Amino acid sequence: MPGLDLLSTFVEIYRCGSLSAAAERLGLSQPAVSGQLARLEDQLGEQLFLRSRKGVTPTAHAADLAARIGTHLDELRAALEPSAAGAAHVGTVRIAGAGELIAMRVLPTLAPLTTRGLRIHVTLGLAQDLLAALSAGQVDLVVSSIRPTQQEITATPLVDEEFVLVGPPSLARSVDSARLAADPVDALAHLPLVAYADDLPIVRRYWLSEFNRRPPNHIAVIVPDLRAVLAAVVAGAGVSALPRYLAEPALSAGSVELLHEPAAPPLNTLYLATRAGALVHPPLALVHDHLRSRAHSWIAL
Questions:
Q1: Distance in angstroms (rounded) separating the CA atoms of residues 214 and 160
Q2: How far apart are CA 141 and CA 227, in angstroms?
Q3: Vertex 110 angle, CA 107 and 113, to 5°
Q4: Is 275 helix (H, G, I), strand (E, B) or coil?
Q5: Where are the alpha helices (DSSP H) in the chain?
Q6: CA distance linking residue 159 with residue 32, whole number of Å
Q7: Which of 57, 244, 81 is closest to 162 using CA atoms?
Q8: Inter-residue contact 94 to 123 (CB < 8 Å)
Q9: Distance (Å, rounded) from C-alpha 161 to C-alpha 299?
Q10: Could you tell me how far CA 123 lies from the centroid of its own chain?
Q11: Which one has a higher pLDDT value, 239 or 74?
């Protein structure tokens, strides 16, 4: 089993995003930090970081390991240093993401941390706008539906969300099953669409992924909240592609039905995005690790 010194060094590298920054925080030389990382990777039999001129990028194994041990190491450090006890729990973390995901998954996951003194400030919006706000230092963490490309942002895969194509029973009955099997775009073309935005971000992705074509359908409703999209679909305004976690209660209740069952469901990866090196701040690291370690329990995401 790796020693605590190696694991502590690993967590510092993960949070700092570079060997040199981790060495500075630990009061060690960079060669010493590199040596400790090499020993840990040798003991685990896994590469933990990809090196580049920009610093280090954690592998998926490294992200999982950091989520499992980071908070525990912080708590052990606090126990050994009473003056630092609770520091990770006290402070404000500015998180951002899509309204429905924040409301239905993120806030319920983070709520227990608020009883220990953590304050959460939420900003809702579109992923591109929120990532720009992250770059500008206006938020601390974005739960993003797109992978960031900005050099100053570090992104960790969080969980895959599955999309389903649903409509109210009245419209579902209007789809001819034989035509759907032979030419799904044509079979679905008469159905009005309910979408999140004018460019049909999720609906377009579903059509391109499953049918290799853009939807030719008439657009009935545009509303920038997926909960409202679902409400409009349930009310009979049209059909839409939605994350399964959002549509599942309505599917179970029979108020919407699946219009198409793909051989492999279309998926989209959600990311936890922070500014490079920002995870050295204990409250942000706590939120990041908490989300990362518990996202697996987000049933049907």
A1: 23
A2: 23
A3: 140
A4: strand
A5: 4-16, 19-26, 30-44, 60-80, 99-101, 107-114, 127-135, 169-172, 177-182, 184-188, 201-211, 226-234, 244-253, 282-294
A6: 34
A7: 244
A8: yes
A9: 10
A10: 15
A11: 239
Q: Do 300 and 107 touch, CB atoms closer than 8 A?
A: no
Pairing of strands 193-195, 267-275: unpaired
Q: What is the pLDDT of residue 293?
A: 85
pLDDT at 142 over 80: yes
Q: Phi and psi for 127 in degrees, rounded to 5?
A: -60, -45
* Residue found under tokens 């409400």: 231
256 Cβ neighbours under 8 A, 6+ residues apart: 166, 167, 168, 169, 230, 233, 234, 247, 250
Considering the entire predicted model, what is its pTM?
0.77
Q: Nearest CA to 188 among 206, 200, 201, 174?
A: 174
3 state DSSP class of 184: helix
For 60, the token pair is 């998926």
Between vectors from CA 204 to CA 201 and to CA 209, what angle results, nearest 5°?
120
pLDDT tens digits for range 79-99: 666 555 455 556 899 999 999
Q: How many helices, marked H, and strands, marked E, lie in the chain?
A: 14, 11
118-141 pLDDT tens trace: 999 999 998 999 999 999 999 999
Which two structure tokens, joined as six digits, stand for 192?
Answer: 């009005």
89: left (phi over 0), alpha (psi -120 to 50) or beta: alpha
